[in-house]
Give the backbone structure.
Amino acid sequence: MQLNGFDNFILKIPNTATNVFTEKDKEDLGAWFYILTIANYIFPLISMIVALILRKKSGSALLGYLANQGLWMFILAFLSAIPAIGSLVVLFLGVIVIYGNFTDKFFDLPLVGKIKLIKY
């Protein structure tokens, strides 16, 4: 995996790491992967529920990862109730979710991502 400057910046934030999912894991989910990745930012609770339902059927660890990401985004969305600072934090986390998943780097969310509320 080739890392660039933005990747290194993300990885310098405490408790951030990449996960070992492969392109095949991503391809196995098809369009669901992209739908759930974007939904993690826009509708995190719905995304998490859909990912858990799909994971129950397929047993995919990547779906567990997406469900965990959705749960954390839902919890952290309450930060957006704090004007300016909370909204910027949630926006930054959304960028990391979408960028990391689309570039196959699968970053844990900074500060909280290594805490797996949903095991995968």
Q: What stands out?
A: Residues 62 and 84 are 32 Å apart (CA to CA). The chain has six helices and no strands. Helices lie at 5-11, 23-29, 31-42, 44-58, 61-76, 85-102. The longest helix spans residues 85-102.
